[in-house]
């Protein structure tokens, strides 16, 4: 994301134990059209490594919504991804293109964060 877009976002991150096996989730809080306010919940019963990967994954979704790449239709079970419309019940989770991007980028984001911490002795 650009620095300008980052400065326009408000992101609340909540760590809590989930009753399910989910690692985390992200939701917009203000508007489904290019939202600027988000809440990310992360399952704190998972390992620190898994929590960091989950945060990276969910931040990809923040980018997708904030840039208008991802749009959820409120009255229909449909999602628009980069101009194409998908039925939410028509695809397996791992075949959803927005999830493919999030899973693909999470590893690289975690590695870049680790490199940053080593370089800055954080």
How many strand units? 6
Assign an overall shape: globular
SSE-based structural type: alpha+beta
Radius of gyration from CA coordinates: 15 Å
In the predicted model, the low-confidence regions spanning at least 5 consecutive residues are none
Oligomeric assembly: single chain
Return the string of H and E elements: HEEEHEEEH
Beta content comes to: 15-25%
Quick one: biggest sheet?
3 strands, mixed
Number of helices: 3
Determine the N-to-C terminus distance: 23 Å
Number of domains: 1
- Average pLDDT, rounded to a whole number, is 94
In order across it, which strands form the biggest sheet? Answer: 1-3-2
Q: Which percent bin holds the helix content?
A: 40-55%
What does this structure look like?
- The chain has three helices and six strands.
- The protein has helices at 3-8, 48-66, 97-120, and strands at residues 10-16, 24-28, 37-43, 70-72, 78-81, 84-87.
- A hairpin with an 8-residue loop joins strand 2 and strand 3 (37-43).
- The strands form two sheets. It has a three-stranded mixed β-sheet.
- The chain has one domain.
- The relative contact order is 0.14.
- It has 122 residues and is α+β, with helices and mostly antiparallel strands.
- The radius of gyration is 15 Å and the shape is globular.
- Helices cover 40% and strands 25% of the residues.
